[in-house]
Design goal:
α2 packs across α3 and α5 runs antiparallel to α10. The strands form 2 sheets. A 6-stranded antiparallel β-sheet has the order 6-5-4-9-8-7. Strands 1-3-2 form a 3-stranded antiparallel β-sheet. It is about 45% helix and about 20% strand.
């Protein structure tokens, strides 16, 4: 997993593997609009939203008006452009307050970040679809790699993806199909990636040295409540030279210890 990148296709479409879920078009489109506005660095007009999501402009306008009425989206009357509104923050705060992992992992991330000067991130795994950043501790060093609470990434990307693949229980045919849709700076071959997944299963942690982002090393360890599938992943991100000075194995073992402790604590709760 790596902050600062999103691999999601912004167009409205059913999620893979969601064939058993009955689609509700109005809800799907509303969620797509919220995600698009969340990714955009500036407010968007109706036509821009409709084009990005391949929606009929009149349909898009109706949904936006409902979202404005619910205080999830705000309209600037002078520019006729839309942005997310404070109602989203209320929902997000409620979700985070109820996220036991985020509350539990934050002190560990803070200690790791202060000790080594890396960016430390706690992510939640949502099956094989994606991971979501739910806790972050940023370094005070000159380089600060960007990620926000709520950032979403493909589940199998980078070091966290190797963790999920190693302990997901899914057959290789499914994992390989997902792997082929990933985008990297320096893509590993399928054969190499599969070997690294097996190494992750043996070691209890994964390392991505410049594959996802050139010059950046990402280390991850899985949180597995009751020894099951990966529910969360603890991640450390740093410039490769910096991580080599710390010691890849040193940092990896610390992450693994944190992840194992969280697995026990969350399981006991």
């Amino acid at each position: 997993m790596m902050p600062g990148r999103s691999m999601e296709d912004p167009r409205v479409r059913p999620s893979r593997g969601a064939g058993q879920v009955r689609q509700v078009p109005a809800v799907t489109r509303a969620v797509a609009i919220l995600r698009l506005l969340g990714r955009s660095e500036e407010p968007l007009g109706v036509n821009a939203v409709a084009r990005a999501l391949r929606l009929i402009p009149s349909t898009c306008l109706h949904i936006l008006r409902v979202l404005v009425a619910e205080e999830l989206v705000a309209l600037d009357p002078s520019t006729k452009r839309y942005r997310l509104d404070a109602g989203i923050l209320t929902i997000a705060r409620s979700a985070l307050r109820r996220n036991g992992f985020a509350e539990t992992v934050q002190p560990e991330l803070d200690r790791l970040s202060r000790r080594h000067g890396v960016t430390a991130i706690g992510v939640q795994a949502i099956g094989l679809k994606h991971i979501v950043a739910v806790a972050i501790s940023r370094s005070d060093h000159g380089l600060r790699l960007h990620a926000d609470i709520g950032s979403r990434f493909p589940a199998l990307i980078s070091a966290s993806g190797r963790c999920i693949a190693a302990f997901s229980g899914h057959p290789w045919t499914v994992l390989e199909s997902r792997f082929r849709g990933l985008r990297w700076d320096r893509p590993p071959s399928l054969r190499t990636w599969r070997a690294e997944v097996e190494t992750t299963r043996a070691n209890g942690y994964a390392v991505d040295e410049g594959n996802y982002i050139r010059g950046v090393t990402i280390i991850a360890a899985p949180v597995r409540v009751s020894g099951g599938e990966v529910s969360h992943v603890v991640v450390a991100v740093g410039v490769s030279e910096q991580v080599r000075q710390i010691g890849v194995d040193t940092l990896a073992r610390e992450l693994r210890t944190i992840a194992e402790d969280l697995s026990h604590r969350l399981g006991a709760g």
